[in-house]
Amino acid sequence: MNSFLLETKKSLDKLSTFKKVKIILGNESCDLDSTVSSVVYSFLLSHLLKTSQTIIIPVINVRENDFKIKTEVIYFCEDCGIDSKNFIFRDQINLNNLKNSGVLELVLIDHHTLVADNEELRSTVTEVIDHRPRDPTSHFRDDAIICIENVGSCATIIARHIFETDPSIMNPNIAKLLYGTIVLDTACLSFDAGIAKPLDFEITDKLLHICDKSISKEKIFKDISTARANISGLTIQQIIKKDLKTVSGIPIIGLPILVKDFLLQPNVSAAISQFCTDREHNLAVFMGLNVGSEQIQRDFAIYKHVKNADDLALNLINNLQRNNFDLEEISIPNLSHQFNVFKQNNSKFSRKKLLPIVKAVAQSI
Asked: What is the pLDDT of residues 43-76, one digit of tens each?
């Protein structure tokens, strides 16, 4: 794997020598699932497509300087022997130039909707692998291969592809990389969380037989969760960007701690206001998470940056209640009236469930 990543990075200076440049692009949040799935799928394709005229390149969909805030990704890749210094980041390759040269083929991993900056690349999408609910407004060319399945982790689909096409590449490190990613995404394969599906259990069982025999899903889950929650060296702005997705102009910020605790940080309101001003957002949505030994806790907040965001915020809250998020508003002393903070009693609903609701509400205004 490391040799493959190093060779792809060296190839950046000679892309013009290839007839096709197949980019495997993860989603904009650059979480563990997106990163691992795009890198491992690229490695698989490099074995399946044995031609010197096409190069396979995994691209981590953040700027290189922002990768340091992805603490759990850095930790677990290193733990599995993957050198993240060989990753290629979005600001290190010009996809528009490749498109204009007629050589770009784009594979979307762990997402199937394009942000505004990528919209002109839509015609180059040849394949999609994702595990979130299908967006009916997202269309691709007729010959694109679309694989969107209701499973707990995109890594589950990638692992199945490997078992079905070239299981010889599944060494203990890659198996652990995929296994740990699925374990994190499914809250340690918890039945109570309701995230893991039958295929997740089937695939993790196969992966476990390849991993080191001393591996423990509880320890892996705890270690990755601890790395994800380690925000001690990050600024408020970096915490906001750590797990950020934008839908129809609305930022949805995933936090590795509960929102109610995040909002107690010094100068947090000013930092959130500046974030919205810089990016011209009228409203921001926060989802907090605390993974304990016994249960998962989630909470939710809306920040209204401008006065005319009140109707949008109310519409969103009402829609979430109709979709059984079971929000219970809580009070935080001395917090600005621009915030509405809720305990999310239905902890089974993650951001994957939230995204299409936010999009529908935003487009209805």
From this structure: 999 999 878 899 999 999 999 999 999 999 999 9
103-150: per-residue pLDDT in tens? Answer: 999 999 999 988 888 899 999 999 999 998 888 888 999 999 999 999
Is residue 148 classed as helix, strand or coil in its secondary structure? strand
pLDDT value at 293 more than 80: no
Q: What is the DSSP string of 90-144?
A: GGGS-HHHHHHTT-EEEEEES--S--GGGGGGGGGEEEEEE-SPP-TT----TT-
Of 60, 5, 64, give the one whose Cα is nearest residue 31. 60
Say whether pLDDT at 167 is over 70: yes
Using alpha carbons, list the distances in angstroms from residue 162 to 145, 165, 269, 305.
Answer: 17, 5, 46, 46
Angle at 229 between CA 227 and CA 234, to 5 degrees: 95
C-alpha distances out from residue 54 to 86, 175, 259, Å: 20, 26, 45
Query: Which residue in this structure is represented by tokens 């210094």?
Result: 85
Overall average pLDDT of the 209-228 stretch: 92
Query: Residues 211-220: what's their mean pLDDT?
Result: 90
CATH 3.10.310.20 fits 236-363, yes or no: yes
Could you tell me the residue ranges of all domains in the chain? 1-224, 236-363
With residue 299 as reference, give the H or E element that holds it: strand 296-304
- CATH fold for the domain made of 1-224: inorganic pyrophosphatase (n-terminal core) (3.90.1640)
